[in-house]
């Protein structure tokens, strides 16, 4: 289920609307320090449901909105759209393409969309939970995370393996059922 394109508007250093198209094979993104490479992977994680502002190197979630520079005023909205090719039906939706959009406004309001229809954050996280692409999965490995895996407690390492194996979502559902 390849990510075919990514559109970023007002997210972190991306003040100008920016579209990245991913063709078959491996894509490498190169650039000087501070040019926004990590911001691209963070945009992907954010649109897929990241809920931790700290995990995005911020204090509050609205810190992801372009904060302005000496030459450009700050923006009031950050928006990221991911286009997935779902012809292999890796995501449990009967559609060939899947478009996931997340927006956040300066006042903290958020909006989420699946295929342009408004939805909840939970719908997005559920969509990815069992695909091996969930926000806690290791399909996206940020700087410093490799050390974190080596140094993690055995229980946490087990969670990583369970998510990869696709059984983690059943554990979450079981825990939720037991709490009722
Ligand atoms: P490195 O090679 O050092 O890992 P990088 O290419 O991964 O660098 P990023 O960490 O993606 O760089 O980008 C950092 C830049 O993003 C910094 O210049 C920072 O000021 C800018 N930035 C982060 N958040 C915002 C924001 N909300 N508004 C404007 N700029 C931001
Ligand atoms: Mg980086």
UniProtKB/TrEMBL annotation:
Species annotation: Agrilactobacillus yilanensis
Comment on protein domains: Contains large globular domains required for ATP hydrolysis at each terminus and a third globular domain forming a flexible hinge near the middle of the molecule. These domains are separated by coiled-coil structures.
Binding residues annotated for ATP, in chain numbering: 32-39
Localization annotation: Cytoplasm
Function of the molecule: Required for chromosome condensation and partitioning.
Official protein name in the record: Chromosome partition protein Smc
Family of this protein: Belongs to the SMC family.
Subunit structure: Homodimer.
């Amino acid at each position: 289920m390849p990510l075919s394109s990514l559109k970023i508007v007002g997210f972190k250093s991306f003040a100008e609307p920016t579209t990245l198209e991913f063709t078959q094979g491996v894509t490498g993104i190169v650039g000087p320090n501070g040019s926004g490479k990590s911001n691209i992977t963070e945009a992907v994680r954010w649109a897929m449901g990241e809920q931790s502002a700290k995990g995005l190197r911020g204090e509050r979630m609205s810190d992801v909105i372009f904060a302005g520079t000496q030459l450009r005023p700050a923006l009031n909205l950050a928006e990221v759209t991911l286009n997935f090719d779902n012809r292999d039906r890796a995501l449990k939706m009967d559609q060939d393409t899947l478009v996931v959009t997340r927006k956040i406004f300066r006042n903290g309001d958020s909006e989420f969309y699946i295929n342009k229809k408004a939805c909840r954050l939970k719908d997005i996280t559920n969509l990815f939970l069992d695909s091996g692409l969930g926000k806690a999965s290791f399909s996206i490995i940020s700087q410093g995370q490799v050390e974190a895996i080596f140094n993690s407690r055995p229980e946490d390492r087990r969670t990583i393996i369970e998510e990869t194996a696709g059984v983690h979502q059943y554990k979450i559902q079981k825990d939720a059922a037991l709490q009722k």
